[in-house]
Amino acid sequence: MSVKEFPLFRDLPAGVIANLDEISQEKCLKKGEILFFEGEDALYLDILISGSVRLYRSSPKGKEITMHEFSEPTFLAELVHIQKVPYKATCEALSEAKFIRIKFSEFEKTLSSIPALREIFFSSMSRKFGLMSGVFDNEILLNADEKTAKFIVENLDEFNASSQISVAKRLNITPETLSRVLAKFKKLGLLEFRGTKIIKFDEKLRDFLR
Length: 210
Description:
Blueprint: H1 14-22, E1 24-29, E2 34-36, E3 44-50, E4 53-58, E5 64-70, E6 74-76, H2 78-83, E7 90-93, E8 97-103, H3 104-113, H4 115-141, H5 144-154, H6 156-161, H7 164-171, H8 175-187, E9 191-194, E10 197-201
Helix pairs in contact: 3-4, 7-8
């Protein structure tokens, strides 16, 4: 697989593409397999090409705290390479997934000499800062009612396409807590269901959003 499969690389000069192809390798995972573990040495720059993944951290008590899910081509865990620290999260495949892995020590040499590549890499990293800031805000500022309301209002189609177990994992709450919150919202007349799918939410649900 060529690095040209990564949309952000397609407009790079042919010579740069050839150089990156020489130092990269393809990796495929099945659902539930791990690309890298929290605490491992970060040797590779990983690029998600297809499929979906979840980045999560583990609390001292073993609770998995979802940082983000990705289902579009993207760099993964860029910041750890700049900081030269171990991976800060575990990356789990949520479906069959394909990746390009590039030895970062070699990538760094190319990065330092190609301005266009630097711009691509650091722009991606900047966007991730925004995503992670939102994750920390949710964990620190929002309770279970607020997390659930926010997710439904902003991602109703995704909510209906997912199992309650996967939604609960995404929100870092238990499935039992999610069920209680949904029952509460239904009792208050804020949600209308058809089977297990939400077909409508009342605008008053937005009152739970800060």
